[in-house]
Design brief:
This protein is an alpha/beta fold and 328 residues long. The chain contains six helices and 19 strands. It has two domains: 183 residues, FAD/NAD(P)-binding domain; 107 residues, FAD/NAD(P)-binding domain. The chain binds flavin-adenine dinucleotide.
């Protein structure tokens, strides 16, 4: 028979959103478990240097991850290395997370902070040189490419917008697209075509990312989509924007989401399933950063605590005051 464990709050994912939520839930004296399939940190572990988390002008991703984790543990949150297979709301109103070890975790509320995954090109050199010239985040890594010649891959809004953004730093930006027209909105395209630092390379695929003796990207092998001829392009950075997939497959039952699968929440981070909150990269929002994930995690944990308080005394309105003056 599978083992079953009971908590006030289950948090799925130990990225910045999950660990911040865990810290606040712990501080609220809630019995909290964080279920994480890998090491704590989420995308922080794929980020060499963070320079835009307030209070830390320069910190390595793994180090910030460790600080988040120990801070959450200090307030009593429990961390379990578990891959959640399904998260469902049961007929009795409890949430149940079933993991691949066969353990069942039950709780009164749940917070999903499972993030998302940038879609990979799947070419040699891409994974090997991630953080050494290969990036999936312009806001995060753009400043490392001041004065460089770089390539952006993709043809949707993200690729076109970020190519334009990256010219703040890079001397030259090649936008490489496998087709002969963009999917991006016309206004973004107009801005792109007017930018003298950008050159579009149409009908072209990337076959390989190559690095120099120091392991830093210095060349891309390109292939013409029609003639299949290959050629080299000297570039010290490659930014890949061919899509991002939210990790929401575990939710059983319908939770409202956008066309890409990002979860829709209200201002308290509650999803369309009562008592299920979502925070960080997994939800519909303007930008995806460590700061926004931490902010979402804060709101989700405090809203979850309010939700539990209202369950204990149903006469209380589970309304969160807009004053921001709620003390935890
Ligand atoms: C290459 C790169 C560089 C970046 N650089 C910066 C930067 O410099 N500054 C900045 O502010 N932001 C940066 N970002 C963005 C930032 O890392 C993310 O916005 C942030 O990590 C989102 O936090 P999160 O907790 O929502 O999700 P994530 O960090 O993605 O964490 C989600 C966690 O959930 C876990 N998980 C998923 N599914 C399951 C499951 N079924 N069971 C158990 N666990 C599960 C995952 O293993 C992961 O640990 C970068 C992103 C990338 C990809």
């Amino acid at each position: 028979m599978s083992e079953s464990r009971d908590y006030d709050v289950i948090i799925v994912g130990a990225g910045p959103a999950g660990m911040t939520a865990a810290m606040y839930a712990g501080r609220s004296m809630l019995k909290t478990v964080v279920l994480e399939r890998g090491a704590s940190g989420g995308e922080l572990l794929n980020t060499e240097i963070i320079e835009d988390y307030p209070g830390f002008e320069h910190i390595e991703g793994w180090e910030l991850a460790q600080k988040f984790e120990s801070h959450a543990k200090k307030f009593g949150a429990e961390f379990q290395q578990e891959t959640v297979i399904t998260l469902e709301k049961m007929p009795d109103g409890a949430f149940q997370a079933t993991t691949d070890s066969g353990t069942i975790y039950r709780s009164k509320v749940a917070i999903i902070t499972s993030g998302g995954t940038p879609i990979k090109l799947g070419v040699p050199g891409e994974i090997e040189y991630a953080g050494k010239g290969v990036s999936y985040c312009a806001i995060c890594d753009g400043a490392f490419f001041r004065g460089h010649t770089i390539a952006v891959i993709g043809g949707g809004d993200a690729a076109v917008e970020e190519a334009d953004f990256l010219t703040r730093y890079a001397e030259k930006v090649y936008l490489i697209h496998r087709r002969d027209e963009f999917r991006a909105s016309k206004i973004l395209q107009k801005r792109l075509f007017e930018n003298p630092k950008i050159e579009v390379i149409w009908n072209t695929l990337v076959d390989e990312v190559q690095a120099d003796a120091q392991g830093l990207v210095h060349n891309l092998v390109l292939r013409d989509a029609n003639t299949h001829e290959t050629r080299n392009l000297a570039a010290t950075g490659i930014f890949i924007f061919i899509g991002f997939r939210p990790n929401t497959g575990i939710i059983e039952g319908h939770a409202d989401h956008d066309e890409m699968g990002y979860l829709r929440t209200d201002m308290n981070m509650e999803t369309s399933i009562k008592g299920l909150f979502a925070a960080g990269d997994v939800r519909v929002q303007l930008t995806r950063q460590v700061t926004t994930a931490a902010g979402d995690g804060t709101t989700a944990a405090i809203a979850a605590e309010k939700y539990l308080a209202a369950m204990r005394s149903p006469s209380d309105e589970p309304v969160i005051s807009g004053s921001g003056g709620y003390a935890v």
